[in-house]
Amino acid sequence: MKKIKEIAEKIQNLQTILSKLNWTHYTTGFDFGIEEKQKELIDFYKKEENYKHILKKEKEVEDEIDKRKVKIMKDMFEPYHLSEELNEIRLKIRKLTTKLSNVLNTFRYEVDGKKVTSVEIYQILSTEDDENLRKKAYMSRKQINKPLVDNGFIDLINLRKEFAQKAGYDNFVDYKLDKQELSSNIFEGWVDEVHQMLEKMNKVRTKYAQKYLNKSELKPWDTEYVQAQFAPVLKRKVNMLNYKEVLNNFFSKFGINLDEYNITYDIFSRNNKSEWGYNFPIEYGKDSRILANVKNMYKEFGVLLHESGHGIHAFKLDPENVILNFGISGIIFEGIANLFGSFLHDEFFYKDIFQKDYKDISNQMRKLEEWFRINSLRAVPNILFDQRLYKNKIKSIDDITDIYWNTYKEVLKEKPYAEQPIWAYRIHHTTHPIYLHNYLMGDVTYKMIKNTYNKKNGTDKITENPKDFMNFMDKKVIEPSGRYPYEELFEKISGRKFSLEYLKK
What we know:
Blueprint: H1 2-28, H2 34-45, H3 48-60, H4 64-77, H5 84-106, E1 109-111, E2 114-116, H6 118-127, H7 131-139, H8 145-150, H9 153-166, H10 172-179, H11 190-213, H12 223-230, H13 243-252, E3 263-268, E4 278-283, E5 287-294, H14 301-316, H15 322-326, H16 330-341, H17 347-350, H18 358-375, H19 380-388, H20 397-412, H21 428-431, H22 437-457, H23 466-478, H24 486-494
Parallel strand pairs: 3-5
Antiparallel strand pairs: 1-2, 4-5
Helix pairs in contact: 1-2, 2-5, 3-4, 5-9, 6-7, 6-12, 9-10, 14-16, 16-22, 19-20
């Protein structure tokens, strides 16, 4: 296995350089050779001697962990040894993806002729009493739809479809799920699950619409506003200049010293910087970087907690386990990040920020928790839309609009909220296709982990002994996470098969 590890370390070195280039691209808008480095990585994957050695070891190894390592490596190399045509398509996909991500990262929306950042849009949506202005702010996000399509988004979709078909898959969704080691039927029944919750969901939404807006239906531009009405702490002003002190204090309760980790934070908005939140795990256990966009509202701590969860996870992985780290499911990564992000609503976090009146906030947070529990499945239409882009013919932006609204109406049984939906602003469709399910499944995962720990220890909350909970996470989740495909790991931790039922608890 020595040579296998050497091959993996070479891949890691190339990926580290590529990650640093992407970090620069996303934080400054400058591209210092991403395409060239992507080609170098592809050329390494294409080396016949490396692939032949992996196939040889596949027949020889008997140890279960070694078998897993060889499988991970084979899955990484195999797509580059199907045909030269596929390698050329892959390079075209990466080149176009980089171009379009730059379009997204540097684009700024306009409201009433004034350029606004994503942070400013959120603040309008959560604080503005004028519904017309909220609607303008929300719908401003559709401004990127046409520029993205004009710059080649449909070409990108079709290239991915072509790649999957020539690689022997029915469609690109099946290809991606296979690479993520997920069952092709994992999403069966999700629409029915939403329909079972619709009556309860609509009842709660109508109650809040009537109470705070004097109408019977919530529109998408009302959601943040209503949340901030029954949980005004979300829009409360905080000093983000001392964010690191707040995070250090919180994570120390779990026995985590952030100062021991080489985590770089870039958290304030500026021109040409991506307006999303990211963790760039440059090199596990050595270098992790966090991109966010915050200003002065309490809710913005949510993205810092989530991305810090990613950063901590990256540092808890053993850098010597290069191959097994390649095999960790994105759902596990998002599950751990979502776990820490959920503490935005937990007294365990906010009582240190709002020391004088934190007890008064608890009722707000209970309402917020109920809101998210009941509305969590509203994420399903976006997940299915992401997939249906690859299961339908697309020739124009109108085709994309039709797919979006048909999915929206089927799942939520609601009429379109506008002539054209907002969709392209969500960068995942461009850079991380067939990934959105990881967030919802990540919620299922962290709730399963909490439930399993509490049952095992007879506790009501993991915060009764946070350091012990972190030890449980280290031993039962993080350490074995590369050894098993996601669904198998889920069952090993919980004793049950994956189920959306955990979202209802």
